[in-house]
């Protein structure tokens, strides 16, 4: 670092924790990446946990004339969240949510996820207006700063229209709360130039009739290109103007510390229709009818969404699982319009449907129009729409990037403009390009793949974008950025769209808010006409498992290591950088980077693979980590794994004895003494020893004694190696083992229970596979399959396992003609009808482990719990528990981080908690204060 940055670092380090300030290559490269196709590497990355830290950073940076860029989730697509200076990211724990006035308003801190807010509002029948496709990973700070909208919110329910109040931190570290009269009075005294300046700009703008009319016209459709000049004509109050200018300002005017939205209704009665028309013109004509002849996005709206998809978009997903088979048979010009209507009740919904179909009856469709209220069916329709963008990403050539552009046209020009866009694709050779979007607002997205590795490719992109800009902004007077924000991508074209007067006005706004130009310079306003052609992201091949990653960041919220080390996106970015260093033959830099990556990238990856569920293209970064671990295993370690696998029963027996001994010592010394000794021993050994915790179980005796019942139906019970070795966390007096509980349940249901022969030597292989011992893991899995095949009479008898993760591993590796059911599935398919359930009127908490989520059993888990209790609670903001097999013993910080929100999300008075994995139950018990048990304990209690 040079002098000013070194001095800045020293100043902020005295206040902000060192573990939230990064200057090393690994973290600046990994954290510096956003979802755009641009990359800059920051010199310093800071994770800010509160407003005082943001204020400090801005003050210290301002003293030294150092640029600062704000980052929330980094899901932005136009290059507005990258820098080669100071990157100020909001900590994931800065996420307070306060629902007010019975759901009428909601106040949010900047790191709140959009879906988290909507979960809080659901009991009130409300939601926030903005509904971007990234709502599950985007944070409120970024949603507001980009004025992100989405499929249903349009121009009436976006951040600008639903904004109530805002707390802002300005370039000099000062603050303003627009909801507090005292704050506003104080700000008027301390910052008269800003308050009086925006009022003067508003007056000047309204006096310029032509400019005012242009602003009003341009904001009738979606527009996030440039600053929100509509604030100057929509409001007289300078504080309203200030806070509304902050919406869509992309961090160039200030930092949003807190924001309050007016909420909108969330109706439960919905219906959708996938309307297939013969061509683009007919589809656009239908959209014009929906927009002009039906009520849209108002109370009791008849049309809430109308999404257009051209034939190329439909073709990109027609072969995917769950897609309607008729997609493959559509004509070459067929165009879809996905329409959704919502209502306060079913009768009103029927009226909406009838009105829509009546208004469209003069347009002949390719397939008869039909609405569905069936949740599964209309969910599949929306899956088509949501799958279009990732479908292009999944088939792109390695080394290319996916570009998604975002324009809006006046609705009456939509058909002509769309046909012209398709001709531009052909002209410039973008043959894979697709068009889809929020057509009710004239908003189209088009997606194509682009390489930036040659000057010819860059020139092709430049010429294409220039023609697009002229077509959208000049010919059709539309918006070059409808909802994705201006960023670096469109900054050189802002003046083209808006004209000299409006562009000069935007410069005046920037000067008022940020006189030294240090907040996100080059974004929104940029005097370099070639700015969009610089700093392209390099996307080298690194591993087939992850090469399709488009670095969108959708994976990050579910990752258990997302606040202590790296996320899946960041791990992929790091691996790409390693590949780059290797190709450049920079041996020392490669070795240094690889060494730094070991802990953050490999050791603290839980390999839970939840990232694959939220990834648009299904990338499983956990599998990459497993392969990297496998590559690091030496010959001796492989032989040791083989020895353990061949002497598995003896190994488990020794572990059982050891755990029982440790538990015995802890009962004598007490938990506090043992905790202190455990931490001390771990510190002395530089974390080589596993950490002892109060929730660590003792050993358990596995001596099953099923009854001989030759005339009864048979079931094979395979108890996992973990359950055969470990007792329950926080054991209770005279508590039955999981084996006694399971066998008792099965026998009460009328089964004869078969225990596989040689069960003490058996393992599903997961314990080996997760550590990279692939050969031994597959051998143990095959051994288990062969034994279960014999025990179940080649699958004639059902097989149940007492741990979901083992069932999943078996399902992934067995041949498929025999299936091992997990506890959840078995209860619903084999016990529900054979046992009488009596619900307890007591709250229970359940945790769906990663395997439960990946097997699609979360709803079924809730169903089982609802059979047993009248009060079932699933803690929000808790995904993977981070225990990751035995990793929670050796890297307890991973478990602690993953469950940091658990205790606060458990209702007061709760005593009962359940899961379906023993090691997860240890970690959950440690961080909740409850004694987690296998769900079969609850089933047993409620069926006696």
From TrEMBL:
Q: Which domain of life is it from?
A: Bacteria
Q: Which cofactor does it need?
A: FAD
* InterPro entries referenced in this protein's UniProt entry, alphabetically: 4Fe4S_Fe-S-bd, 4Fe4S_Fe_S_CS, Cys_rich_dom, FAD-bd_oxidored_4_C, FAD-bd_PCMH, FAD-bd_PCMH-like_sf, FAD-bd_PCMH_sub1, FAD-bd_PCMH_sub2
The species is: Sulfurospirillum tamanense
Report keywords, A-Z. Answer: FAD, Flavoprotein, Iron, Iron-sulfur, Metal-binding, Oxidoreductase, Transit peptide
Write down what this protein is called.
D-lactate dehydrogenase (cytochrome)
**Pfam families linked to this entry:** CCG, FAD-oxidase_C, FAD_binding_4, Fer4_8
Q: Where is the FAD-binding PCMH-type domain?
A: 38-266
Q: What is its EC number?
A: 1.1.2.4
**Family named by the database record:** Belongs to the FAD-binding oxidoreductase/transferase type 4 family.
Q: What positions does the domain 4Fe-4S ferredoxin-type occupy?
A: 538-569, 595-625
